[in-house]
Structure formats: structure tokens, C-alpha cells
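Q&A log
Question type: sequence-to-structure
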Amino acid sequence: MAQIAPEPIILAGEGWDDYALIDSGHGRKLERFGPYRFIRPEPQALWSPRLDEDGSEWDAHGEFVPGSDEDGGGRWYFDQPVPDEGWPIGWRDVRFTAQCTPFRHLGFFPDMAPVWDWMGGTLAQTPREDSTTLNLFGYTGVGTLALSEYGLVTHVDASKKSVAQAKANAQLSGLADRPVRWLVDDAAKFAAREVRRQKRYDGIILDPPKFGRGPDGEVWRLEEHLPGLISSCRKLVDDDSQFLFLTVYAVRMSSLAIAGLLAEYFADLPGVIEHGDLAVREEGDGARLLPTAIFARWRSR
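Response status: OK
Response body:
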């Protein structure tokens, strides 16, 4: 039966043609998104920049400067023109629009690339024509489109704007005919309804925020509501399922803590529960790994 692996692991993403972590340090990071470069806050970059002693000479089109409130806020400042409507970039065969959002993100999370690779490889090991996966908090759909190569994906996000962008990304990729259900819904309520419908999935990925609101004003608080959601997700998988992958950002929590949560609900299934850090590797000589999130995953084999 599934037990927690004794050692944490690192899932490290490398840059690709349309993305790179150029440098990091002193609480900031310099990244390239297609032809544009941006500086964003990164509290875990405790070291000094490699390419400039203090980062003051970083050449960037824009920078997101956080507000004084620890829980959010801030704004973008631009030194060079950047398209307001965004610009197309890609990962593998998925094309999508990168854009400077008010939440400091640019429409996708590059550190998720090794996660998409891992899930795709897991599904490919035992291919099934009727394979089904569930993407909760699916955001703009890059992971959904990557998974849709292997079968039907149910994409759920509470933001109507994010789901609309995900559909637009499918069109941009030429993948609009892929088997995807696009749903604007509260993730926890949807999962509970799927349990009552006695649905099952071969794989589940969930990337919950620290705090959020559903389409009808439902309040989500990670520490309060995550156990109930994991309980529902456990009822949506069985011995023939292949994985559940949970990522958590911006919380004072250990990966061992969320692995322990999975162990409580998944201990009766075969396989193993693993945990650790997501990270992105800088490009160039002396490249370092920048940790970005913690994760825990159950895999059946």
C-alpha cells in the first residue's frame, strides 16, 4: 500500500526556446518570455545575482514591483514597450499567449513544464483510448492541452476569464479539436459532485491557490479547505488510476506536510507518495536551481 518515500526529490525545469530564467538574486529574478525580459519578485532567491553584483544593471522590458502588503498587490513598470494584449509563445506543441497580468504572472507557470512531462510520460506507459484526467484550478490551460494528447481532460477553473483564455490558447495551438471539457466552476464543489456521480479518473492534477473565490463568491482558504478536496479526489481514483499531482505555492509549509495529507487518504492504494520542490534552472555558466513551489504526488507504479 502507498507510503511516503523517505527522501524528498527535486523536479527541475530547464529553459526552452521561448522561456529562460536568466538570473536571480536579492529577492528577484530575471526571465525571458519570448522576445521580452521581465524582473519579478522571488523571495527564495536569497543569493546574489551572477550576472550583475546587485541586479541594478539587469536589462529588462519591465518589472513587477510588489506592494507593501505581504499577501499581494503591486504593479508593473515598463522601460520598453510590451504588447498590452500579449504575445504568442509555445511549449512543445502547445501555443499560448503570454501577458503581464495584475497578479505578477504572465499567463502560465514555467516551473510546471517538468510536471507536464512527468504526467504525459506516466500516461504513455499504459496508454488507454479512454484515458481521462482532471485538471482542477486549470488556469489558462497549458497543462490541459499537454495532457489532452493522451485522452479526455476535464479542465476546471473558477475564473471565466482564465477558461476563455484557455480556449483561445487551444485555438492558437491548432488543438481546438482535442478532447477537453472546459468548465467554469468551483473546484471543490465540482469534485464533490463528481464523487456523487461516481466518476473516476486515471489522473488528477490540482494547483490550488493560497486564497481564492469561486464563480458564486465561494471562499477558498488552502489550509482550511485542502483536506476536504483531497478527500474528494481520493474517491475519484481507484487501483487502476495512475497519479494525483498536487502543487502548492506561497505558503509556509513543508512538502512533507502535504505528502502526509495525501498519505492519510491514499494509504489504501498501491504505489508510493513522493514529495519535494519544483525548481527552475538558470541558463548559462554557474546556473543555480531556483525553488518555486512544493509538491506531493501519488503514483500507482
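Response note: Residues 3-14+108-299 form a domain with the Rossmann fold fold (CATH 3.40.50.150).
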